[in-house]
Design goal:
single chain; alpha+beta; two-stranded antiparallel ribbon; 6 helices; 36% helix; 12% strand
Length: 209
């Protein structure tokens, strides 16, 4: 995966910052020093580059106060959120997983999981199969193992997978032009589900399709 921050347009609409090498040269007494001399020029270049890096890192730290601008510091958000992205996950996918994690308010109800999915752009339905019970079921109904009471199904409507397309300013250099994000939804649900339950996923066309 490309290093975080590559390919992002950091300077769009902003006035370019004068390199610190030039600013340091302007601080020298004009009649006593000649910035063009090799040794002095090398010293100014080294000190200016260090200040340029410090300013860039300060900007990254300020932006990383929100995952929307985390860029190279997105792994820190993933560490705090307890996320372990797949090796081939794109920057957009990783950022979406962090945002979904931060949106969690806690809960185990069906509406709670539906709201989480809706926040990630999915329309889902959740069903809970029930075992065959005398007095409730009829002849001909399917028999289920009793363990099925701990199983629940998530049906995702719409496209089988949600595409993440490469976008300037949102993607990183070296990423695929298109990636698919259903694993992000499944991983989130697997992480939040009650430990004694089993959840599986099915994909269906949209109801009005």
């Amino acid at each position: 995966m490309a290093a975080a921050g590559q390919g992002l347009d950091k300077g769009a609409g902003m006035t370019p910052q004068t390199p610190y090498r030039q600013l340091l040269a302007q601080l020298l007494p004009p009649d006593s020093y000649q910035p063009g001399q090799p040794r002095l020029a090398a010293e100014l270049a080294g000190e200016g580059a260090a200040l340029d890096r410090a300013e860039q890192q300060a900007g990254q730290l300020a932006g990383a106060t929100t995952p929307l601008r985390a860029e190279a510091l997105l792994p820190e958000w993933e560490r705090v959120c307890g996320l372990s992205p797949a090796p081939d996950a794109t920057y957009q996918q990783r950022q979406q997983a962090v945002l979904a994690k931060l949106a969690e308010t806690g809960g185990l109800s069906i509406p709670y999981f539906q709201r989480l999915a809706q926040g990630m752009g999915y329309h889902i339905a959740i069903s809970e199969p029930q075992p065959f019970r005398a007095g409730l079921n009829r002849v001909g109904d399917q028999l289920w193992r009793k363990e099925v009471r701990w199983v629940w199904q998530v049906t995702v409507y719409g496209d089988k997978v949600r595409p993440y397309r490469f976008r300037a300013g949102q993607s990183l250099a070296g990423e695929r032009l298109t990636a698919f994000g259903d694993p992000m939804l499944e991983e989130l649900f697997q992480d939040l589900k009650p430990a004694h339950t089993f959840v599986y996923f099915a994909y269906r066309p949209a109801p009005d399709a």
